[in-house]
């Protein structure tokens, strides 16, 4: 589904990604682990099509299509979803209204008509039920005064409604207490699907106790330096990143 080949990316004249190679098959959940500053968020932004990232070399293919030639809204229409590390607050806009706008934007980019209110209400009710989200949260402005756990629930709800084929979760675990972590992980696990691939970015092994990945990649200094199964996350937790940094230098 997703092929990243020799990806080099610059931000403000600094090379941040230095030849990333990664293949993610349909239905698989891959984790990317790496220390702070290794370029994990940069990779997720480049995948989502955020501006100000200059790709100097390499390619990204989504089901064989050149993702780098697509605008951010075209990527969303094609089924790419990025859950941010720091969710934005939107004062004055009810979460419900935001979700409807997000769904309609995706539909528009796909050349589909607007969702009717009853169809939207039904979709929200189904998704909120699946994720055990209380309806009253949806009437409040998006993320304003939300707890860390509520922000993540809102994000996972948005993900459920947009039904992406590629989900990128960038440090969805940061700032969550253990109960919220379980709720979010359960939500993500419910959205696992043979047609959906997920890239879970984290620097804590503990998230992967709940969202068990098929494949783990270790990221260091802007590259994937090691790929393995879920036991690699445990090895990393035990040894720390230093060993992997050396394999990067070699
Ligand atoms: P991670 O998510 O692994 O912590 P990031 O992708 O956020 O890493 O950052 C990787 C490196 O790129 C860091 O050294 C960071 O300072 C740098 N960087 C990220 N964004 C910018 C930016 N907009 N301008 C300059 N440097 C940046
Ligand atoms: Mg970071
Ligand atoms: Mg980051």
Automatic annotation (TrEMBL):
PROSITE patterns: ABC_TRANSPORTER_1, ABC_TRANSPORTER_2
CDD domains tied to this protein: ABC_FeS_Assembly
Annotated keywords: ATP-binding, Nucleotide-binding
Superkingdom of source: Bacteria
Family matches, as Pfam families: ABC_tran (PF00005)
UniProt xrefs under SUPFAM superfamilies: P-loop containing nucleoside triphosphate hydrolases
Positions of the ABC transporter domain: 2-246
Family: Belongs to the ABC transporter superfamily. Ycf16 family.
PANTHER family linked to this entry: ABC TRANSPORTER I FAMILY MEMBER 6, CHLOROPLASTIC
Entry protein name: Fe-S cluster assembly ATPase SufC
């Amino acid at each position: 589904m997703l092929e990243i080949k020799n990806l080099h990316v610059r931000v403000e004249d600094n090379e941040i990604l230095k030849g990333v190679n990664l293949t993610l098959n349909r239905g698989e959940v891959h984790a990317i682990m790496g220390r702070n500053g290794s370029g994990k968020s940069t990779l997720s932004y480049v995948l989502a099509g955020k501006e100000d990232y200059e790709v100097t070399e390499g390619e990204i293919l989504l089901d064989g299509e050149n993702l780098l030639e697509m605008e951010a809204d075209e990527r969303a229409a094609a089924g790419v979803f990025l859950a941010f590390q720091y969710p934005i607050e939107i004062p004055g806009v009810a979460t419900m209204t935001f979700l409807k706008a997000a769904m309609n934007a995706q539909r528009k980019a796909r050349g589909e008509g607007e969702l009717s209110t009853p169809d939207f209400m039904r979709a929200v009710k189904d998704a909120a039920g699946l994720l055990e989200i209380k309806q009253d949260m949806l009437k409040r402005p998006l993320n304003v005064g939300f707890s860390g756990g509520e922000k993540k629930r809102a994000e996972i709800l948005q993900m459920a409604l947009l039904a992406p084929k590629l989900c990128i979760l960038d440090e969805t675990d940061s700032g969550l207490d253990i109960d919220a972590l379980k709720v979010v992980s359960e939500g993500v696990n419910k959205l696992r699907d043979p047609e959906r691939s997920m890239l879970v970015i984290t620097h804590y092994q503990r998230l992967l106790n709940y969202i068990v990945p098929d494949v783990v990649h270790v990221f260091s200094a802007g590259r994937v330096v090691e790929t393995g199964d879920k036991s690699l996350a445990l090895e990393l937790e035990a040894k720390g990143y230093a060993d992997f940094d050396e394999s990067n230098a070699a």
